[in-house]
Structure formats: C-alpha cells, structure tokens
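User: quick one
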Amino acid sequence: MKLTHVFLSLSAIWPLSANTSPLQPLTEAEMGDISGQNAIEISLTLHNNIQVKDNLHEGLAHCYSVGSYNPCRLALEFAGHEGYWLVMKEFYGYLQLDGIQLEARTLPTANTAYHDEDRFRRIDGQCMVENCDPGGLASIEMSYPANKGPGQYLDMQTFMNIGRMSVEQDESGVPGYLLENQSGVANAFRISDSSGPNANHQVRFDGRTLIYGF
Amino acid sequence: MASDRYVVLFLLLAPASTLAMTELDDGALAAVSGRDGIVLDVESANGISAQEIRWETDGGAAATNNMGADTLFRDVIWMGDNGPLQASLILDLGTDQNGLPMVGIIYEWQPGFYGIGAMTLNTSTYDHSDHSLGQFGLWSEGRFSLVNHGLFSTSDEAHAQLDFNLHGDLIIRQGDPGTPELSLGNLIFENRFTTGVQGGHAPGTGIIGIDQNGLLIKADHTWTHLEFDLMYKENPDVGGRGFDREDRSPTLRLGWIGGLDNATFQLMSGGVSDGEDPSQGLTFRAGWDFASDFNVQLGHADDTHGTLLRLGDWRRLGAGHPQATGTMFGLDVFLDVLQNNHGPAGLCFGGSGAMPTPSQCTASGGQFHNTRVPEGDAGFALLLRDGHLHAYSNRLSVVNPGTETESHYDFGLGLTFGQLDGDIILYPRGLHGSTEGLKLDTTLMITSPGFWDAAHSDIAAEREQASQNWYNNSHLLLANTSEGSRVAVGLLNYDMLWQTRDLHLRIGDNDPVFNDMRSGVMLTSDTHAQYFIRGMLGGGHLEDLGPGRTSNVALMQFNLDTNRYRFVLYPESVVTEISGNNVDLASIGFEGFFELSGDAFLTLAEASMPQAAFRLYDVEGSLGWRDGHVVLKSADQHDDGRPSLTVKNQLLLGQDVNFGGGPGNPLVGNLGFGDNHYGRIAMPGGTWHSEIMVRVAQ
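Assistant: Done. Structure below.
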C-alpha cells in the first residue's frame, strides 16, 4: 500500500480571500471582483482524560487509582495471543494544532531532479498513472503560516502520558483490559516539555506537503 | 360585516368528505356580491371549525383489501388572530392585451390561525384512531393570485400568472397546550412566475393546468423565497390553544431564496404499486434548475449577532458533458397508507439496476433493503424515488450582521445526489405512555449507482472506468473555485445509507433512561439506527472528475451501526467574544448516545488494489456526545476580518458515557489489513474534548 496517500478529510469550509459588497444579488461586475488564492485554516484542540491548565495539565481524578481499575486506558490484544492484553494505563493527553492551512492544488507538470517514473509502475511494469507522471493531478496542499517569528514553536503542542504499561490476562470471563491484576510496570511513556510539569511539547513546521493518490 | 359568514370558500380548501360546519344562512349569502367580478368576503368572530375531516382511500377503513384507509384530521380550526377571521376571494373575467379571455382569482387572508388538533389513520388492519402524529398550528397572512386562460390550461402557450406569498409561524407539538413546541418561526414562503434573472424577476407567465396525469404547474422562470427560524419553547403558554409565539428560543435560520428555472411541479393521483395497479394516494413530481441568483442560507437565528452563510452561484456538475442532461434537481414523492406487510418493492443500495428484485440487486453489486409495515400494523408511507441534485454551489458568502454586508469567497461546496431513493414509514405513535408522536422506519439512500462495485472489480480496466458516470453521481466536494484553480477535494462517487427502525421523533421529552441528557428535539431508537457512507477520498478538477482525471487517495467506508441511539438538538446560548465583548449568541446545541452494535466499521483501501485495506471492524461499545455547539462568526466579528466556524463538544467513550443510565460499555474492535487479522483494540473509557475552528487563511 502506498502510504503516501494520507488524506485529511476534515469537514471544513474552504473560503478564500474576501471582499465586501452590499446585501443584494451579485452583478456580473461584482462577481468579477471576487478574487483570492488563499486557503482555509484549521485549528484543532483535542484533549483526552485531562484537565487543561496551561503547562500544568492534570489527568482527570478518576484516572489515578493505582492498585485498582480505572477506565483511562488503551489496550491491544494481538492475534495468536488471545486473552492477553497489553494495557496502557493512566492514558491521557493533549493535542493542539494551530493554523494548518489546506488548499486544493494541481500538481506541477515540471519535474524536479528527484523525479523517478519507476515509482509509478505496477509490478508488471505498467504505469499506474498516465505516462507514469502524476503531474496535473489534483492534490491537497498542507502548509503552515510562513510568517512565524524566531522562537515561535506553537504550530503543534502536545502532551501525552501513559503512566504504566503491563499485560493483563482475561480472567473468569472478564477481559484483561478491565482488570488490574498486574501492579507492576513494564514500561511508561511521556511526551512533554521540560518547561513545566506536564507542559506541552512544542513543534514548529515549515514548508508544505502535497497529498495525492492514484 | 355584521354576521358570521361561512362561505363556500372553505369548501374549496377542504379536501374532505366530512365537515362539521354551520350551514350557510341568508345573511351569509348576502355577502356574495357582484361587481365586474365576484367578491366573496369571509368574516367570522368565532372562526370556523370541523370536528373531523376524513380522507378515504381504496375503500376506506372498512375495506379488507390491505389497502383501504381513512386519514383523519381532528379538531380543525380556522380563526382570526386577535380579531375576527377575515379573508376574501375575488373571481374576475377579462382579456389580455391580445384579446384572449382570462380568468383571475385572488385570495387574500388577514392574520389568522389554522390548527389541526390531531392527524392519524384508521385501517381494518390497525386502528390508530386514538393516536396522533401531533398537533399543528399555522399563524399566517398572505395572498394568492392566479390569472389564467381558463381556470386551468395546459396549452403550450404559457398564459398563467402566479403570485403567492405567506408570512407566519408554523408550530408543532406532541401534546396539549403547554407541552414543548417546535416552530418554523418568522416563516416566509413566496413563489411567483417571473421573467427570470435577466428580466429582473418581473411578473412572468407559465402553465397551470390539469391533464390526464393531474395538476401541472410549469414555468421557465420563477422566484422562490422559503425562509424560517428554527425555534423552540420549553414551557409555552397554555392560554387559548397554546401555539405560543412569544419569547421562543431561536436556533438556526434557514433559507432557500432566488430564481428557479425550467421548473415543473406535478400533483398526481396514485400511490404505492404492490405488483398491481397503484393504490389511491398522492404523487408529487418536481424538478428545476437553479438560477444564478439562487442561494441556500444557513446560520444563527440571532437578529443582533447572528452570522449567515449563503451558498450561491449554483452550477450543473459536468456542464457541457453530452450526457449531463436534465434538470439540476428532481424528485418524485409518493404519499400513501401501507399495512399488513404490503408495501413497495424495496430499494437497492449501490447496485447499477433501476428497481431490481433482491437477486438482481445482489447480482449487480448492490445490497437489497426491504422496508415493510409489520403484519397487523399500518402506517403512512412517504416514498422518495429518482431524486437527484446534480449541482454544486460555486460561491460562498458570509453575511456580516454588524454592517449588513456580504463577504464573498471563491469557495465551492458540493453535496450532489446522484440517485436519491427512500422508503419511510410514519406511524402515529408516542413513547413513554403517550399515544401522540411520530415513529419512523426509514431506509434513505443517496447513491452513485454501480461505482463501488466497479471500483472493487478484479479487472483493472473496470476499476479504472468506475467513475465514468461521475457527472450524475454523488460527491461531497470542497473546491477552490477561482478560475485559475477549479480544483475540488472530498469524497467522490459516494453512497450513503440512513436506515432506522422504531425511531421516534420526540419534542421536549426527558428520556427516562438517559435523564441527564438535555431535552429538545430528539431522535431515539432502542432497535436500530445506521449511518453508512462509502466512496473515494480524492480530488480533481470540477470540470472533469472522470476516469483517469482524479487523484484517488483511498476507498473509504464508515459504518456507524447502533442498536441504541439518541440524538438531541436544543437551543443553546453560547457566550461568544465579539469585538471585545462577551455576548450571548443564540445557537444550537447537540448531544448524542450511540451503542455500537458490533457491526460498526471503518476501512481505508488502496484505490488500485482494493483488497489492500486497513480495517477496524466489528466495533462494539458506547459512544457519546455532550455539550456540543456550533458558533459562526463573520468577518467583522473578528479583529483580523476573517470569518470562522467553530464546532465544540465532548466525545465520551465506553464507560465514561453516562447520561444518568449508568456507565456505558467498553469500546472494543478488531484490527486487520486485507485478509489478515492483527488483533483487537480496546478503550474502556475516555473523555475527549474537541474544538475545531475553520477560518479563512491570512
């Protein structure tokens, strides 16, 4: 599978640059004034099992119950090992994406020095796109504002905590992801920043990504 | 006028066989006066009422042919608004400028109230006489004017001049005065024949006639204005008949405003065909193109701070393609009564056949869905057939409430319907001990016939041609519509299915199981509710989304399949920062509960190798939405002049889904790729807060 085919399907509005006119049907002349090549901008804040406190995020109270079960978990059971769950406990986190810009684009037809048409062939040698060249196809351009100042790292802020990781086994018909029989810790995981307890990890993005498929 | 005059006018309006009315007296007849035409004035201090209006079809309720039914309207009232009932009908004869004899009818009514105390049905299979869909009240004033060559004429020479307008409030409730009320408030409905956009929508002509099929209304150009505020009142005044118009909570403002060209509307007799001749019922057929000034309007119903979106410049998808023909919009609607496991033939989801049998449907790659009234039961049938919307909006405008200006954007929104069909059964049946309410069994599908099956063919050439009918298929598109771009991305050639069983529409109920859930307008089912959508994630140029011309990112399927379902909308005042001040913005809130049945899934597959699919499947457990709301802000409500749309809510998972009925069930699903089963994933609980804001980029 060609995993270049990542797609952001955020149901969003795609307004471009604006002008204003009185509240009345548009005339042809007014329509001619409409212009713009800008993109939509999406900001997203998600946080799971957390009380947001700037750089002092706290997991919700019911997520702390060492020695007894709490539901702030993510668990995986692998095929061939049924009945054994890898349980990530005290699972909570925060994600903020600020000002992602999306726009519909046409892929450029002029190739760069990195163009390799073999990447667009099937195993039998047939081209998957016309002339093994995706130039001219529609694409989604994803970018971040380019006017950030020095030291601004706020494009993505994230914090994640997995307090304990252990294997819980099904017992008496109760699935392992609902049990707390293993108080030991096999592993733990955190994404954070040293600027404060449970502070957000900060990321800055530059450049652009063109997303397309065939 | 001194006395109550119950004139024949009401008889003209009532499609009924049984009227409990006062007979005309001499005083009433005296009001019929002749000038150059005939003027019938109606005035009544107490109004006009009918205890019951009965509409018999296929032999009525006494018939045992599994078709006969009585449709009953009870406690029908027509009365004045803070005064006597007043209306007038003018009939006039004359000629047009060419000497052609013409008939004119003008009906004007002063502010009045029209009420229906109950609507239900009675059949020999099941008697719903003591049930009701609800109570309806219409406050209105308006005018209807028709001038035609003969009262009705289907001559190709379009002579008819039509002008209709109604202003008022339509209110619905499920109980007696004092029970919560849902309103289409500040309702405006206008329609007239015009000379079109180029002619400035001056009065124009069309055809209004009766032919062998029924009533035909047709015009090259019309103007339509349908607009209302969706409003809600939790504790309406019980005085009079209720239907309270004071201090309602506004939520959304909706509108469909502008020119409709090549418009046809037909009203015909004939209902559902059950392998024999159609039973008695009604059939509506409508179709039109959108004129260049047509807009769909959506936004906050807040007169002070409410921002509105307007979707305009509607264009035919695939314009110029030799097979992209027909009107932009079309739909057939059938109204009938069904009973005792008799009903329509069923619908094929996604198959390439028209109305096939179950075996033909399956053979053509579709899924067959049969929607029947159970044995021993009866219900109203609302059947939708051959619907389509082959048009998209090419321009977005945002109305700034502060300055009453519009900001225009080269942004296109397309939600096209390739083929729309629906079997909807409506039962007059309540919940929680009530006999009043609306229960629905629905199968509604919007499809791109044949696409999904072809896109999964073992033959590469068939896969590559799967989108060959793109111009008549269903697409959800977001587009850059500036002339230099015209690129759209979204879900191409989609199929969508909405299927429910034992779904109740409740107004103002407190759910006895989920008693922490807000009350409002609620959809609820303890049996089945399914939202299924599939299609190609990708993009392309608006002028050609055909084979080889699109960027095909992935074939996606999403199936939200529930066996317990709640979704409620309610008025919500959202504290919103506007120009440095916090104001209470009238908005709409939402909450929901979904108990996944174990058949829910999400898949993403390689377009050129559909068997290479990532799969999350057989998902079961509880999901919930809490404290959701939507806020739309215009350009002049932001310091930087960029409008925004914000959706905020809590997403509850598993055991943290608790609306008063106890913790939900852990969320568990299977993971796989292609034929391989990787394992299972579980989230016992979780409380996700989500805020998504979409803005114009700088």
